[in-house]
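Quick one: structure for this chain?
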Amino acid sequence: MENIEFVLPSEIEKRSFQIIESELNYRGISIPEEQKPITMRVIHTSADFEYAETMKYSEDAVETAKKLIISGADIVTDTNMAKAGINAKALEKFGGKVHCFMADKDVAEEAKERSITRATVSMERASKLGKSVIFALGNAPTALISLYDMMKKNEYTPAFVIGVPVGFVNVVAAKELFLNSNVPYIINQGRKGGSNIAAAICNALLYELGGRS
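Got it. Here's what it folds into:
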C-alpha cells in the first residue's frame, strides 16, 4: 500500500491530467495549445500516449468544430456505444442532438435489400437531417468511405469529420481519404481508435465550451 497515492474522488481526473502533462513533457512531446485539451482527453480515455503523435487536425479544426457546436450542429455516430458516451445534455444546451442510425430496424432492412452495409445506409440517413452534422466515427471505416463517396459525387459534404475507426480492414486507407480532402477533420492515423475515442473527442470539445454537465 505504500505506493498507493491518496487522491480525493473529486480530484482524480485533475490528477490524471497532471500526470499526462508531466509524461508528455518527459517524452519531449509538444502539442499545440488549441489541440491539447482534445488530445489529452483521448490519452486520458485510452492511457495511450501514441495518440499525441498520431492525432491529426485540419487547419483551425478545433475552432471550426466549436463554432459548429455553438450553431446547433448535431452529432452522428456509427455505434450506440459512442452515442451513449457523448454528453448529450451538454450538446443540447447548444441546440444539438446525438444520433445513431446503425441499430434502426429499417436501416438493417434497407442494407440487406441493397446488399450494402448498415454504415452506408446510416450515413445516407445522416446526410438528410437537413442541418450541419459533425460525424464522430470510431468503428466503421465503411462509414468514412461512404461519406467520402457522397462527397466525390457532389451529393453531400459533411460539415466536420471525427474519423477514429479502429481495426485492420480498410481502416488506415479510409482515414487517409479525409486527410487529403477539404473537409475539416480530427483524424487518428493508423489502426487505433474506437467508439470511446470518438466520444472523448466530442466531449473534449463540449467541455472546452463550458458545456459540461
